[in-house]
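S.,

Sequence below, as promised.
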Amino acid sequence: MQLKTSRIALLLIMGVIYMFAMASCGSETKEYNWEWENPTKNEGSADSLIIKNGWTLQTSFGNLPEYIRVYKSANVLQNKMAVAYIAVADIDKTNFKVLGNATGYHTPNDFYDAGKETVILNGGYFWDGASVSLLCKEGETLCPNSPYVWRQNGELVYYPTKGAFAEMKNGKFQVDWVYNVNGSSYAYPAPAHNSSGSAPLPQPSATFPEGGILWNAQNGIGGGPVLIKDSTVVNTYEEELFDANSGVGPTINNPRSAIAVTGTGQLIFFVCEGRNMTEGVKGLTLEDLANTLLKIGCTQALNLDGGGSSCMLINGEETIKPSDGKQRSVVTAVALN
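The prediction came back faster than expected:
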């Protein structure tokens, strides 16, 4: 009887230990999930800021590398109805690519079919099948930013230093204002302060604007305007001559595309829908876009071609509804693998 009682007591003790272990295991699992979901944890990481600002992790785009994640925005951004996506990639693991050449049309699907890149986002501006934005691949500049802009029916010509986003040869990612001088690209710490309608400034050179240095990029894409520089919203559409008359509509709601880098080592591709492809979703202004990217930790950001060109593919699948009703043929794109 004493032996039986001892055996029962032992079983009870073992049961208590088992339940305690299971409770501890459950607690650990819960804490892990909570740590991932709770934006107050790991405050410095880009993903926690993204989650904190209402973006939700997407799992419907097929298998992704563990270092690339896709998020969808909340239904409202900057007090406007929104449909927006970002692809977030860890810089030290991902492969950043620039797609296309100085001339030649391709839809984003064409680019995907050619290389099967995990993430593809439309690139810079173009006209009549040729890029008018900078294009640099494997250390070679295939196309500079457009060197001049006409205003007042051709009476005034300006030479804007326009934005470019690049992976530099030292591995750093950054945004600069860039101008091609006699076959060499120079980057400047601030843009030439042009303003549509004012007297044009001199053509940029190695010494104007001040502080110019040779732009030593490995892979880069032009666009504009620069939205964020050194964690500060700059939105230099006026200096870059992307004013309202240029068709870009910086203060008008539009579909938008952008590329950015965070202070914690992530590359971000951004795209948002607009023009009521989804009822009530008109898009964002450039100011809206810059503020949205700043809130999720971006320290450098460049606007890319928008409107009907805006399109981001994840494993070949569209994220937003292109405002042309179908994918527009573009000249350049950027990609992540």
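The helical segments are 2-37, 46-52, 108-115, 286-295.

Coffee later?
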